Amino acid sequence: MALQYIYGYHPIIAALSTSSLIKIKKVFLVQDKYQELKKDLKSVNIPYEIISLQAMNNLLGTTKHQNIAANVKDYQYFSFDELINIDSTSKFLRILILDRISDPHNFGSMLRIAAGNDFDGVIVLNRNQSEINGAVVKAAAGALSIIPVCQVNNLTSAINNLQEKYKFWILAAAKTAKAIDYFTIDCSSNLALIIGNEGEGISPKLLKHTDYIVQIPISLKIESFNASVACGIIANYIYVETLKLS
Question: Where in the numbering of this chain does the RNA 2-O ribose methyltransferase substrate binding domain appear (predicted)?
Answer without folding.
Answer: 5-78
